Amino acid sequence: MEFFIFAGLILLGWLCWQLYRAKQFTKFRRYIESELKPIVVQHITEGLEQSRSDTFPNTPIHKEAALKYWQQYHVRLLQYALAKELLTKEEMVGKGKWRYCQHLFAVEGQYLCPSLL
Asked: How confident is residue 116, by pLDDT bands cut at 50, 70 and 90?
């Protein structure tokens, strides 16, 4: 009987630990949405305005499509920020968020932009 009580407590502890980890990952996704997204959007918009030419007019429709593509998934925002060095690996390691970056790349890996790989 004591074995089942002990096993139940171990299982309950493990479930609590998993809940804590899930909440931390959700907090990281909110960080991407609230802090990283405005920086990426501004960088994309400025880049499109600077590269405007007759060949690439970058009309409002182009801007809207580019922003929609990059904002569609959290992993694309993170990938863009890391590729364009708006954010560095060292910063993420220093903030304790690198493990969450790795997990996000694993979970949403199929949505990565192939041209930045």
From this structure: confident
